[in-house]
Amino acid sequence: EKIRIEIISLCITESRIASDETIQQLFVECRLYNFLEEETPLSLPKPTSGQRIHYNYSNVIHVDKANNRARREYLKSMLLKPDLHTDSLRFTVVSDPPEDEQDLECEDIGFAYVSLREIFQKQRDIIEQDIDVFDSQDDSAVIGKLKVTVEALHVLRAVYEECKDD
C-alpha cells in the first residue's frame, strides 16, 4: 500500500546550468500532486559535464486506506479521469546557494516527470531509469538526466480494483 521512490543520480548535459558559476550545489525535490513534497537530505556539488552525482535517496509514500485516504482518492481519480494533468510525480532539481551566500534563494533549475498513469497503462514500474530533466526557463531544452526508480504498479492495481468495486 505504498509508492516507493528512489532518486539515484543526476548528470547535467552541456547547458547554461553547466556554465553558470552561481549554481554550485544541487538537491532534488519530489512532489506528488499537492500531497507530498520530499527532498534529498543532501545537496551535492554540481557535476561536471558527463559526470554523475549520486544521491541514493529512497522514500516511501504511504497510500493505505486507514491513514491516507486522500492520497488514495487522488490515485483513483487519476486512473478514472485521463484528462487530469496531475498524473505525474514531479522531480525538481534545485540550486542550493553556497554556505557563504545564504542571502541567495534556492532556485528551481529543472523539472522531470514520471507519469503514474503510464506506469499503470504499461503495467511496468520504472526501475533505475534515466528521465529527462527539462530547463525551468525553457521547457523544450533538456539539461540533464535523473536516474530514478518509481515502484507504484502494485498499489495502482489495488486502487483500480477498488474503483471497479465502488
Automatic annotation (TrEMBL):
Annotated GO biological processes are: non-motile cilium assembly; retinal rod cell development
Q: Name one GO cellular component term.
A: photoreceptor connecting cilium
Q: GO MF annotations for this entry?
A: thromboxane A2 receptor binding
Q: Which Pfam families match?
A: RPGR1_C (PF18111)
Annotated RPGRIP1 C-terminal domain ranges read 1-162
This one is known as FTM protein
Q: Which species does this protein come from?
A: Psophia crepitans
Recall the taxonomic lineage recorded for the source organism. Answer: Eukaryota, Metazoa, Chordata, Craniata, Vertebrata
